[in-house]
Amino acid sequence: MRTCFSGKFRITETEPPSDVKEAFVKYTEGKNYMTAEQLQRFMVEVQSEGGASVSDAEMIVDQILQKRHHITKCVRSCLTLDDFHHFLFSTDLNPPISNQVEQDMTAPLSNYFIYTGHNSYLTGNQISSDCSDVPIEKALKRGVRAVELDVWPNSAKDDVLVLHGWTLTTPVKLITCLKSIKEHAFSSSPYPVIITLEDHLTENLQAKVAQMIAETFGDMLFYPETECLKEFPSPEELKYKIIISAKPPKVKGDLEAKCMKGNGVDLLKERDSSEDIWGKDLSPISSHQEEDGKSDGDTSEQNQGDEYKNVCNHELRPREAPAYKHLISINAGKPKGGLKAALKLEFDNVIRISLSEQKFEKVVATHGTDVVRFTQKNILRIYPKGIRIDSSNYKPMNGWLHGAQMVALNMQGYGKSLWLMHGMFRSNGGCGYVKKPDFFMNTGPENQTFDPRAKLPVKKTLKVSTEFAVR
Predict the structure, then answer these.
(1) Which GO terms describe its biological process (predicted)?
(2) Which of 135, 136, 181, 386 matches a 20 to 30 Å C-alpha distance to 279?
(3) What is the Cα–Cα distance from 429 to 425, expressed in whole angstroms?
(4) H-helix or E-strand containing 194?
(5) Tens-place pLDDT, residues 249-260
(6) Where are the domains of the chain?
(7) H or E element: which one contains 195?
(8) Using alpha carbons only, how large is the chain's radius of gyration in Å?
(9) In 10 A of CB 164, how many CB atoms?
């Protein structure tokens, strides 16, 4: 025996919670309908959308009426309580994160956290994966603003390749990566893209790289007025610009012969015995061997025994000459004397330095406030330790807590650390730059700075309730 049923079923919506009802009653002054003007006032006063206009609210009202009531020609331009509830939970009409840039973008670059990738050309692991421009393209489309390229000579020493040195990674030509950067640099954000070059080239190939970069980017390339900046320009000033960051060449001669001398083990020993990047101030830390085992271009900065001021020239640059060092806008290196020199008031030149995640943890354990002070004016880049051969990532929060602008992660990786990075840079319209809170940049009457390890009193406790609705 079979029984057939026919009927119509209607999905009922969840009743608006009490706080939504209270807000509706407050802004409609007890009436049954909310006008566009009342919705705009709610958006400004409750949701802190200072830029919301009445015309914006009218567009939202029209879209809700068309979607929920199929009204193409609005008979009434008002929302019911259920319409208002729908608006609050609509990811299209009322997204949790604004897609507009909301922060001041006129401060120096050192005042911002920057969406930064590590070994941006790798498609997979750090040892045997292919190098390609595709990961660079994907990163730029996501909003990443700083990419890293390790540049090496080819076997004939007449061309430049991008690869992870001393590994089995398959190389890609530098010109391929540069063209991809040019094409996709500003597909998701108008703010500047920083190319970090880890240079393992001869002087002749450096000249070839300079020509490649100048011809590829043309007017997109940013040239500072002097070789050493006293203050970084702002993201607003650098809109649609490409910035080169690298260690400036100091001496003439075959740099490649110096880089290629010995095998990977010899280079590691040489690096382990070198002075810590922060100088003699942190001698207990520098006595430890590097644990990351990484022998890529980041270590060139740690091996640098040259005085940073020696490569600085405050005379105006010849804009027409695309010499390699003239293309470098953000100088990488260390000042003479280490950390103390970097913190002296008379130290005028701004620089970028790089630390592995392990070295960074050791430094901030005893010199956390000094790191915060350093990053008020200069740029600090942190990169994953070398034993992360699977392209995993470290937790980025500690770097941000100490003011590090360029916390570099493997964008081809996976996991909570990378998700946290992506979530962080969805803010400020997803432009790739997030302004540091003011307390990072402030100094007290005795020149004290923010201490990330200090226990501060709780000023406010937030209680959050979540509403789940099946639609």
Answers:
(1) intracellular signal transduction; lipid catabolic process
(2) 386
(3) 8
(4) strand 193-199
(5) 875 544 333 433
(6) 18-89, 109-248+323-447
(7) strand 193-199
(8) 27
(9) 25
Catalytic, out of 85, 118, 326, 402 = 118
Pair 231, 108: CB distance under 8 Å: yes
pLDDT band per the 50, 70, 90 thresholds, residue 91: confident
pLDDT averaged over every residue in the chain: 83
What are the structure tokens assigned to 339, written together? Answer: 């950390």
Cα–Cα nearest to 317, from 436, 442, 210: 210
pLDDT per position as a tens digit, 425-457: 999 999 999 999 999 999 989 889 999 999 888
Report d(CA 218, CA 238) in Å as an integer: 15
| CATH (residue range 18-89) | 1.10.238.10
Task: Give which of 469, 168, 34 is closest to 42, Cα–Cα.
Answer: 34
Q: 109-248+323-447 has which CATH code?
A: 3.20.20.190
Choosing from 164, 200, 326, 402, the catalytic residue is 164
CA–CA dist 145, 143 (Å, integer): 6
State pLDDT tens for residues 253-302: 443 334 334 333 333 333 333 334 444 444 333 333 344 444 444 444 44
In percent, the amount of the chain with pLDDT more than 90 equals 61
Neighbours of 382 (CB within 10 A): 26
Instruction: Tally the C-alpha atoms within 13 A of residue 131's C-alpha that lie toward its C-beta.
Output: 26
pTM of the predicted model as reported, rounded to 2 decimal places: 0.78
Centroid of chain to Cα 356: 17
Residue 164: active-site member: yes
Segment 11-21 mean pLDDT: 81
Residue 184's identity, in one-letter code, is: H
Active site residue 402: no
Query: CA-CA distance, 112 to 379, in Å (whole number)?
Result: 10
Alpha carbon distances (Å) from 197 to 110, 156, 175, 245: 19, 21, 13, 6
